[in-house]
Amino acid sequence: MVLVYSEKENIAYELLNKGRELADKLGRKLIAVVIGGDKDLAKNLIAYGADEVVVIKSPVSSFKAEEYADILKQVVEEKSVETILIGSTKNGKELASRLSGILKTGCIIDAVDVYLEDNKVYTKRVVYSGNAVALQGFNSKPAIVTIPPRLIDPLPRDDKRKGEIEEKEYKVKPSSSSIVKITEMQTDSVNVEEADIIVSCGRGFKNKEDLKLAEELAEALKGKTIGCSRPIAADLKWLSEDHWIGLSGHKVKPKLYIAVGISGQIQHIAGMRDSGIVVAINKDPDALIFKSADYGIVGDLYEVLPKLTEVIKEKLG
Question: I need a labelling partner for 263 at 20 to 30 A (CA). Which of 77, 131, 235, 307 fits?
């Protein structure tokens, strides 16, 4: 059996694509798990590729990795699961690691690919700030892998697919930890990970007020998402960390990524390497960003951006 779980619905659909591929090659069923009793979600998961959905009537009021790992352990043992795919969210990574410890098996975090050789599970991971790819395999079962969001496109939805929905209720040992307080993070209401068009700002901007040039370009492109490199968010604090794209920030996969005044250090490239079309604007012709770009404009951003924005407005109306 191949099992898929994520607390985020869109990521669960993405995982089902890879899970479907593995299950078909292994000749196994693909199971999705829903913790919280949402039967409508279960029907959607079948439409996106699951053969069976286990809906857990959870006694847990909020996420605790210890208790969620206990629930998944019981599903894994009951269904004889051999491969587990979990979304690489903050909760997902903690959950996968704890589940690995409980089951005394291997766990690989942030795999960019999962594949089979001689019916054994292998993965690829980007390491050393994007300078190398590590190939790792499992010698034990079940194999536990977390996969980052937006790495895989979901399968086309098929409402004619048939599948089994099973409601279960497991006894869960209460965790000794307690959630004292949950404070909502203050954000700029931006989600760079979901954006189709991103205009990203780097240290080539001289003043915070000049970021308006990038905002105007994004608006002209019918997209309003602004990203940035590490110095803009972490050092200068011109933008919140919601906008930070890179190895330590957000990993994005837009259809169009415009890097303005960004030198192209490997830490930043690691966050935007999966973008569809990459356009780089930099006055330094030797800037590393041009090696990762499909199109490059060598010039001063203060001259290029206003002219580019004007032309795009004329073309797009």
Answer: 307
CATH number of 192-316: 3.40.50.1220
| Distance, CA of 128 to CA of 142 (rounded, Å) | 27
DSSP 229-296: -HIIIIIS-SS-GGGBBSSSSB----SEEEEES----HHHHHHHTT-SEEEEEES-TT-GGGGG-SEE
Instruction: List residues bridging with 30 in a β-sheet.
Output: 2
Read off the pTM: 0.79
Q: DSSP H helical segments within the chain, as ranges?
A: 9-26, 39-47, 65-79, 90-103, 212-220, 230, 266-272, 301-316
Domain ranges of the chain: 2-168, 192-316
pLDDT surpassing 90 at residue 129 = no
Q: Is the pLDDT of residue 186 over 70?
A: no
Superfamily of domain 2-168: HUPs (3.40.50.620)
Q: Is it true that 2-168 and 192-316 share their CATH fold?
A: yes
Indicate the Cα dihedral angle 210, 216, 218, 223, nearest 10°: 140
58/200 Cα distance (integer angstroms): 42
**Distance from CA of residue 228 to its chain's centroid?**
18
CA atoms of 55 and 44, how far apart (whole Å): 12
Structure tokens at 238: 């011109």
pLDDT tens digits, 209-261: 999 999 999 999 987 799 999 999 999 999 998 999 998 888 898 999 999 99
